[in-house]
Design a protein that fits this description.
The chain is an alpha/beta fold and 253 residues long. It has a single domain, classed as Rossmann fold. Helix content is 26%, strand content 26%. It has six helices and eleven strands. It has a nine-stranded mixed beta sheet, sandwiched between helices. A two-stranded antiparallel ribbon has the order 2-3. β4, α2 and β5 form a beta-alpha-beta unit. The longest helix has 15 residues.
Length: 253
């Protein structure tokens, strides 16, 4: 069984995001970049599936972007992935384009399971996994907080637990399938220095986006970014009557 895991390069979640001059986007010069946290969880789950005894022949990590994303792919290799693939694209791609590129790549890779983060923390679109499953015409289990594989079944089955408004829901999906990870799925492992050194010798293939023969769909155009307005100072009230009066003044009551 081959597992394909997607990794997106994003501004590290610990960084306080600042707008670039002129509101053209987010300032990234000199900013720490990391693997999207949800994608890192997806990779950790792929490695744990193999460690639990599933017959996983290969864990492949893939990222779409310029050569800067190779740093995140090397981190994925250091975590334990066997091979990395970069889909080289000079421009940022939106969810549908990313899904088409990943689907085209998977026609070559023939993965039995694709694990992805449920969303990326830079755009929060939460669309690529669902779109990829639709293009692939395979089942999907989104927002998974627990994944159990029955690889002895025919075909193999994944039992995915997900949190819903009413509690917990368990989905049974036949493989091949797309599974997207929630934060509660696991806690990614710490990468040690020897693993980082070993990752330098693992294969990292580069595929030009144009080679995959994917037509770029119409994309949304973002005209400008702006910071949210500053919150006004609060007002302290002495009792409930004063609170109700203040709410009536503002037209809330």
């Amino acid at each position: 069984m081959k597992i394909l895991v997607t990794l997106k390069r994003v501004v590290d979640y610990t960084v306080r995001v600042q707008l670039a001059r002129g509101g053209s986007g987010v300032a990234t010069d000199g900013v720490k970049m990391s693997i999207n946290p949800f994608d890192e969880i997806a990779l950790e789950e792929a490695l744990r599936i193999r460690e639990r005894g599933a017959p996983v022949s290969e864990v492949v990590v893939v990222s779409i972007g310029d050569d800067a994303c190779q740093a995140q792919l090397r981190t994925g290799l250091a975590m334990g992935a066997d091979r990395a693939v970069q889909i080289r694209s000079a421009e940022a791609v939106q969810p549908l384009h990313a899904a088409r590129l990943l689907h085209a790549l998977n026609q070559r890779e023939a993965a039995d399971l694709i694990l992805m983060g449920k969303q990326a923390i830079d755009d929060d679109c939460n669309q690529t996994g669902q779109m990829l499953a639709a293009l692939w015409d395979r089942p999907q289990a989104t927002f998974s907080s627990k994944v159990e594989l029955d690889h002895a079944a025919t075909p193999p089955v994944a039992l995915c637990t997900r949190e819903v408004d009413a509690g917990l829901e368990t989905l049974s999906v036949d493989l091949p399938a797309v599974i997207t990870s929630d934060l509660r799925l696991n806690e990614p492992r710490y990468v040690k220095m020897p693993d980082i050194m070993k990752a330098k010798r693992k294969p990292l293939d580069v595929v030009e986006a144009a080679e995959l023969g994917v037509e770029a769909p119409p994309a949304l155009t973002i005209d400008a970014y702006e910071a949210p307005p500053k919150r006004s100072a609060g007002r302290r009230v002495a009792d409930v009557d004063e609170l109700l009066a203040a709410l009536r003044e503002r037209g809330v009551l």
